[in-house]
Design a protein that fits this description.
The chain is 14% helix and 32% strand. It contains four helices and twelve strands, in the order βββαβαβαββαβββββ.
């Protein structure tokens, strides 16, 4: 069981996400899928390693999604010690990472199609994200690049950025975070979890 700071999509449909201090007990139950979300690790350029708290938060994950800017492929290998990893490359990833990982990836959970992309031009609004979701017939779009947590539900599509585990921006206002998707037959609950 992990005590998490979280925000539920269906209680709050916000563009500017604050990680709440409200505590949730996440206990894996039969029929529940837990997906860990991580992005912008930038190892070793901005941090030496993945914070140990990430391994605690992801310990019950069935899958981990990395939304790019990995920098070293060893980050994926390390996360795979917890659960299988589905990843995409980011704009800062070197050629060896870009040749191993696609720009876009997707997977389906319980009839919900999830897409992953590093940079859907979120800094310029949601137009490209909405277009990607529509063209790829997505229920969930996970992205990174901005280093800032983001959760929004629009037209029955969940858009989520877990923030950065090592380099949140702006540093004075944001905390290092990861995300979780708690998926059941009935609903998807996205959580943003503080690392610090």
């Amino acid at each position: 069981m992990i005590i998490l700071s979280a925000i539920s999509l269906f209680q709050y449909s916000r563009v500017d996400v604050e990680v709440l201090d409200e505590k949730f007990d996440v206990e894996k139950k039969p029929g529940m899928t837990i997906v860990g979300l991580i992005s912008d690790t930038h190892i070793p350029s901005r941090a030496k390693k993945i914070p140990s708290k990430v391994f605690e938060i992801f310990k019950d994950a069935d899958l981990i999604i990395h939304a790019g800017d990995i920098i070293q492929i060893s980050v994926i290998n390390e996360l795979e010690q917890i659960a299988p990893v589905l990843a995409v490359h980011g704009n800062m990833d070197p050629p060896d990472v870009k040749t191993k990982l696609p720009e876009f990836n997707s997977i389906e959970f319980r009839g919900r199609k999830t897409g992953i992309i590093h940079n859907p031009d979120a800094l310029y609004g949601m137009d490209k994200m909405k277009r990607i979701a529509k063209e790829k017939d997505l229920n969930i779009l996970v992205f990174g690049h901005t280093h800032k947590q983001f959760i929004k539900n629009e037209n029955n599509v969940l858009f989520i950025n877990p923030g950065s585990v090592n380099d949140p921006l702006p540093k004075l206002l944001m905390k290092a975070t990861v995300g979780l998707l708690i998926i059941t037959e009935e609903k998807v609950t996205p959580l943003i979890v503080k690392i610090e």
